[in-house]
User: Fold this.
Amino acid sequence: MDNISFLVKGSSPDPYKVTFSKVGRNISAYCNCQAGQNGQQCKHRLGILAGSSINVISENYNDIAKVAAWLPGSDIEEAWVEVKRLEHEVDLIKSQLARAKKNLAKAMRAQ
Assistant:
């Protein structure tokens, strides 16, 4: 079993502790932030899994890449890919909506 922990700056005055564990293909991630404690999506876990060091205040930055490298072939890879795909679609839809609203505003001025 591999375990790697990080300290992450969040909205609390004290840093959050994010811990990743890997056993075979299984990856588990825990964070003591409010969302993590409630079993909800946690941006701290997702950021590290994506390979981001944003808000990581512990000095084990090299371990971020190690955790991100666990993703391919893991039991969570398929769900991760689906989340990323849908986030991309949301971004596209937001862009299309902004253009549509701009066009609507132009159309209303033309009258």
